[in-house]
Amino acid sequence: MTRKRAKGTSLEAFISRKAKKSTKLSIFEGKGADKNLAIFHILVAAGPLSIGDIQRRLNRISGLEVTYYASLNKRIHALVRDGYLIEIKVTGQVGYKAALYEVTQKFYLAYYLNGKSREEILSKLNESNATIILSDLINAESIEA
Q1: Residue boundaries of the structural domains of the chain
Q2: How far apart are the C-alpha atoms of 112 and 116, rounded to whole Å?
Q3: What is the C-alpha to C-alpha distance for residues 69 and 54, in angstroms, rounded to an integer?
Q4: Rounded distance, CA 56 to CA 67, Å?
Q5: How far is CA 145 from CA 84, 106, 132, 139, 140, in A?
Q6: What sign has the CA pseudo-torsion 46, 48, 50, 55?
Q7: Is the dihedral of CA 103, 109, 110, 111 positive or negative?
Q8: What residues contact residue 63 under an 8 Å CB cut-off, 6+ apart?
Q9: Which fold has domain 23-114?
Q10: Does the pLDDT at position 83 exceed 90?
């Protein structure tokens, strides 16, 4: 039994829809996108902060006033796991270790790439920069495999 394609579902249409969707990165989409962006802006402006300090600053932002520590803790640890934040251990008072969080270069790259088309990015690259990026991407794929 063969399936009939609905109108507008050609391979080209599918690829172009997929390409349009892929210009937005997952950390900047969905339910937690506004909090992710607020966390990143806070950390970029203020430098490394603890979860409590981030929460206090988030609660000052209109629309994000009710941010529970537990949900923020989960969100920050997910961003650490995904490589967008890094945890820095700092020893404070005697026997007290605090974890401070700061953004990584991966975040800056994601922020730059967010919403830009591949064509726009490729048009700005020269040959040597394209070679460096390509070698890094190939290296990253070989590490994952």
Answers
A1: 23-114, 115-145
A2: 8
A3: 10
A4: 9
A5: 21, 20, 20, 10, 9
A6: positive
A7: positive
A8: 34
A9: Arc Repressor Mutant, subunit A (1.10.10)
A10: yes
Buried b (16+ CB within 10 A) or exposed e, 57-75: bbeeeeebeebeeeebeeb
- The tokens for 87 are 């945890």
CB 81 within 8 A of CB 67: no
The burial of 10, by beta-carbon neighbours within 10 Å (0-12 exposed, 13-18 middle, 19 or more buried), is given as exposed
Angle between helices 69-82 and 33-46 (to 10 degrees): 80
Lookup: tokens for 56: 């206090």
| Length of the chain, in residues | 145
In this prediction, residues 37-56 reach a mean pLDDT of 92
The residue behind tokens 């806070």 is 42
Cβ contact 114:24 at 8 Å: yes
E strands present in the chain: 85-91, 97-103
CA-wise closest residue to 84 among 33, 136, 126, 30: 33
Q: At residue 117, what is the residue type?
A: S
Cβ atoms of 23 and 120 closer than 8 Å: no
pLDDT, tens digit (0-9, with 9 covering 90-100), for 10-31? 445 544 554 554 566 778 888 8
